[in-house]
Design goal:
The complex is a heterodimer of chains A (186) and B (318).
Chain A: H1 2-6, E1 9-18, H2 25-31, E2 35-37, E3 45-49, E4 54-58, E5 63-69, H3 72-88, E6 100-109, H4 116-122, E7 128-130, E8 138-141, E9 148-151, E10 156-162, H5 165-181
Antiparallel strand pairs in A: 1-5, 1-6, 2-3, 3-4, 4-5, 6-10, 7-8, 8-9, 9-10
Chain B: H1 6-9, E1 31-33, E2 38-40, E3 46-48, H2 101-116, H3 122-140, H4 145-160, H5 169-183, H6 190-196, H7 201-215, H8 224-235, H9 239-254, H10 263-277, H11 284-291, H12 295-311
Antiparallel strand pairs in B: 1-2, 2-3
Helix pairs in contact in B: 3-4, 3-5, 4-5, 5-7, 8-9, 8-10, 9-10, 10-11, 10-12, 11-12
The chains are: A alpha+beta (186), B mainly alpha (318).
Chain lengths: 186, 318
């Protein structure tokens, strides 16, 4: 169905990389403007970029984690900015360090209300976590692609755990087909 | 796993003899056993004769009611050794005679070694501890024997899958009980479980999530109508109010008012509405407290319920 696929929106991309060089976070925090470093609260330095809006966590080992970006291109751009800032501080950074996308969180909309109880029974009670006492959404773990989908009563979905944007599309396809098979999509 | 197979080290004296099959090997007819022989009723083949009489070895003709038995209690999954344990008695022996001093000292030494040798491994000790916890929790919650046995079996499976590592045994015991109740569709309230078990909410939740996911339990989602009877008895309402509340809860479930909402909130709202309809009003705070939810949730579900009844309209959640 093309309708739910059109509503797929990437909400968050998390990527990790490393410059292969140990850093003295104290001095980086002093020289880099806009950096937050509170070793008692969190062992990493937090550097927030405005454009694209994201946060980079820089650790003493030289590893960097970037979260909050809205697309894979944004993540590459924001990490590029971080690398440039580090080069300005005379820290040797490779020309093109490897950036690995670890997690992509997407939202989608099936456009109709869902009867979560019936879905829980239909999809198999063994694959589903539905605890309305704890959380209003139904947790459906897929094997292929290896993602976790949260389904809500309004028909909105959240798909998390994917490493590529197409994982979300495959997941939505699978979910729509399984629900239509069971006749739960009216 | 490090727990041993009980039949390798102990034996069950009360051996039940079961026929190996119910069909004749030659003509596949029906096989019947009488006192003397096992015979096929269709072709007349004698399958087994010389039956062993498994009746008692002796009868007691004494005037007092002493009847010395050689057998013990039936096998049960609720004990770590399946019920095949040994207890060494104290002052008197099997026939009722008092023992001499030296004999009693010897028995004391044997008893000490027996207690020390009860567990072959740490895993068995943990199993015994966990099963004891399960038995205590099920008896405190007044759940039946079948639930107790199933919860014990679930605990054993959890131990076999190595899910006990890194989690407290009491939490896993409580989660086994909760899991079995959920599989039967008669959930026990988490608050009750937390009061009885020696763990807090997060421990039980975490353990139950792991159990559910790793063992793939077929747990049915909690439906509001299953919570009504307990709520009604706690608030001491009429049976008419209770049955009206149950009908309302079933309708709410079918028309998807309860979709994604806390079932205790829906149950509380149904009971509140039913009690007001029958002229026995309960306060919102009372009902909400008994259900473990807040008056605000109760009011929200109550508003949806009244809409459903008045207009008979299918409520679509926002």
């Amino acid at each position: 169905m093309s309708d739910p696929k059109d509503t797929i929106n990437i909400e968050n991309v998390v990527a990790s990389t490393g410059i292969g060089q140990e850093l003295d976070l104290q001095s980086v925090a002093m020289d880099l403007e806009g950096a937050d470093y509170d070793p008692e609260q969190f062992p990493g330095l937090v550097y927030r970029t405005q454009n694209p809006k994201s946060a980079a966590l820089i650790f003493r080992s030289g590893k960097i984690v970037c979260t909050g970006a809205k697309s894979t291109d944004d993540v590459h751009e924001s990490l590029g900015i971080v690398f440039d800032k580090l080069r300005e501080l005379q820290i040797p950074v490779d020309d093109d360090p490897e950036i690995t996308v670890q997690n992509i969180v997407t939202s989608a909309d099936l456009g109709r209300n869902l009867n979560l109880n019936a879905i829980a029974i239909g999809l198999g009670l063994e694959n589903i976590e539905y605890e309305p006492e704890q959380f209003p959404g139904l947790v459906y773990r897929l094997d292929e692609p290896k993602v976790v989908a949260l389904l809500f009563g309004s028909g909105k979905l959240v798909i998390t755990g994917g490493k590529q944007p197409v994982d979300a599309e495959h997941a939505v396809d699978k979910i729509v087909s399984r629900l239509s098979e069971l006749g739960l999509l009216d | 796993m490090a727990t041993r197979d009980i039949y390798e080290t102990t034996f069950d004296e009360d051996v039940q003899c079961e026929p190996s099959s119910n069909t004749c090997p030659e003509c596949n007819g029906h096989v019947a056993t009488n006192v003397v022989e096992t015979v096929c009723e269709d072709c007349g083949l004698v399958i087994a004769d010389q039956q062993i009489d498994h009746g008692p070895e002796w009868r007691s003709f004494e005037d007092d009611d002493s009847n010395y038995e050689r057998t013990g209690s039936p096998l049960t999954a609720a004990r770590h050794d399946r019920g095949l344990s040994t207890t060494i008695g104290r002052r008197i022996d099997g026939k009722g005679r008092t023992l001499s001093g030296s004999k009693r000292c010897q028995l004391a030494r044997l008893r000490r070694e027996q207690t020390r040798g009860r567990f072959q491994s740490k895993a068995e000790r943990n199993l015994a501890h966990g099963l004891g916890e399960v038995r205590r929790i099920t008896s405190a919650l007044e759940l039946g024997d079948s639930i107790r046995d199933q919860a014990c079996q679930l605990f054993r499976s959890a131990q076999n899958e190595d899910l006990l590592r890194g989690r407290s045994i009491e939490a896993m015991a409580a989660a086994s009980v909760y899991g079995v109740c959920r599989c039967h569709g008669r959930p026990v309230a988490r608050d009750d479980l937390v009061n009885v078990a020696r763990v807090d909410h997060s421990g039980v939740t975490n353990a139950y999530k792991t159990l559910n996911r790793e063992l793939g339990l077929p747990t049915k989602p909690v439906v509001p109508q299953s919570l009504i009877p307990k709520l009604a008895s706690e608030l001491d309402v009429d049976t008419r109010v209770c049955s009206r509340a149950r009908t309302l809860a079933k309708r709410a479930h079918e028309t998807a008012i309860a979709n994604g909402c806390q079932p205790s909130g829906v149950a509380a709202a149904c009971l509140y509405l039913a009690s007001r309809e029958h002229g026995q009003p309960l306060t919102q705070t009372q009902v909400a407290a008994a259900a473990g939810t807040t008056p605000a949730t109760l009011r929200a579900r109550h508003a949806e319920l009244t809409e459903m009844i008045d207009g008979e309209v299918r409520i679509t959640p926002a």
